[in-house]
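Internal tracking record. Fields below are filled automatically when a chain is submitted to the structure queue. Please do not edit lines marked as system-generated. If the sequence contains nonstandard residues, flag them in the REMARKS field before resubmitting.
Queue: standard
Priority: normal
Entity type: single polypeptide chain
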Amino acid sequence: MKYYLSVLAGAMSYGILSTIVVLAYGQGYQLGEVVGTQLITGFILSWMLALYTRFRAGRRAKRGLQRNEQSSASSASTVFTRLTWKQRLLLMAAGTPTVITGLVYYQSLRYIPASLAIILLFQFTWISVLIQAISKRQRPDKVTFLTLIILFGGTLLAAGFLEQGLGEFSGLGIVLGLMAAVSYSLFVLFSGKAVPSAHPAFRSAWMVTGGLILLCILFPPTFLFNGLIWSQLLVFGLLLGFFGAFIPPVLFAIGVPHIGGDMAGILGAVELPVAVLLSSFVLHEHVSGLQWFGVIIVLIGVALPELIKKIRMRRSEGQSSPLYS
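SYSTEM-GENERATED OUTPUT FOLLOWS
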């Protein structure tokens, strides 16, 4: 249960980000400054957690040796097996989609409402399924096609396309939102497959490190030297870093390897209502009843494949039991 709650809390943290970014834009800050302060904060917090975790494990191992508890000492040491540079580079590469997601998603918020941006980002649910189907060279089954239809219909309602028409929204903003969905789906898939044997704290730290390096190449952090960091930008950076670059990667690194990418995508559905609620109450964006109905349909579509899978498993277990033999 703790692994499910871990992924759930990580997804809820992602739902907070769009509201914070819109508020930061309202204060005049730019894209590179917003994402840069977020990742620098996440980088510091992630490595503080990793080093503290290693320090605690070292103390426990030392106590175990003093008590001649060699089994506990050996188990503590195996948890922190030193990563090779190949593994570190792999983790850093797996962290780069978080930067791309942040850049294109935050940029889309300049052109479209936050409630629409999060709905477009949320298309990662079916995009993840499509990527896995292509990588495994397997055609999606009937349940997947049904899910895609439900998600498409729910998206049209939730985004307000049926009420206001597609022409009322920025085409560039819609494209950026969908690009963020593709990048986010890659992050969800990679976060569970990149060096799963490594400790979650160090997996997260190296992933954030890779993302920060990429961002510094794309947007040199001039705000660190011109004094802008000591303005209100620091507050936004701390909030974004905590809820965007620190909490989700750590919690995903803990939970995804144990519950799988498919279930992680379903639990990530909680990000949608959290973001829409905050955009409605904090940013005062109009969200109609029809849009909320679309949000519910999207959530149903996301959960449908896993629900059908569980129903089939229960039926097969019931038919194979001695009662039916």
